């Protein structure tokens, strides 16, 4: 159990892994805009107008995710912070995707 605690509190993550996390977060930040575009395709103008609030939410979340990823890239943080950040980013992507699909099909 002590080994797990030490690994979670460690701050010695390799630079290439931090850069990989940053790249993945940037790609994940673009994904909500792609989902919104794909679900709006049949009647793009009307559907985008209905989903305008979701586009705003996606923009704010993208800025927040990229800012946190930049902080993780430039500073030493414990591994549990990086893990929780990845879980939060993935949770947002799933929640956003499901919400947009439900609203666009309503």
Set out the fold topology.
Layout: H1 2-9, H2 15-40, H3 44-50, H4 52-74, H5 79-105
Describe the protein's architecture and organization.
The chain crosses the membrane at residues 21-39, 51-73, 80-103. Keywords: Membrane, Transmembrane, Transmembrane helix. Helix content is 86%, strand content 0%. The chain has 106 residues and is an all-alpha fold. It has one domain (15-105). Helix 2 (15-40) runs antiparallel to helix 4 (52-74) and helix 2 (15-40) packs parallel to helix 5 (79-105). The longest helix is centred in the last third of the chain and has 27 residues, at 79-105. The mean pLDDT is 85.
Could you give a quick summary of the protein structure above?
This protein is mainly α. The protein has helices at residues 2-9, 15-40, 44-50, 52-74, 79-105.
Key features of this structure:
single chain, 106 residues, mainly alpha, 5 helices, 86% helix, 0% strand, transmembrane, membrane, transmembrane helix
DSSP strand (E) fraction? under 5%
Helical content, roughly?
Answer: over 70%
The number of E-state strands comes to 0
Radius of gyration: 17 Å
Biggest sheet features: none
Number of helices: 5
């Amino acid at each position: 159990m002590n080994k797990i605690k030490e690994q979670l509190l460690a701050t010695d993550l390799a630079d290439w892994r931090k850069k990989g996390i940053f790249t993945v977060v940037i790609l994940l930040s673009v994904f909500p805009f792609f989902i919104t575009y794909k679900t709006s395709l049949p009647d793009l103008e009307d559907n985008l107008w209905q989903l305008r609030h979701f586009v705003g939410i996606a923009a704010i979340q993208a800025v927040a995710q990229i800012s946190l990823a930049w902080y993780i890239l430039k500073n030493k943080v414990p591994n549990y912070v990086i893990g929780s950040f990845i879980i939060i980013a993935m949770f947002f992507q799933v929640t956003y995707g499901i919400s947009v699909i439900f609203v666009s099909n309503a």
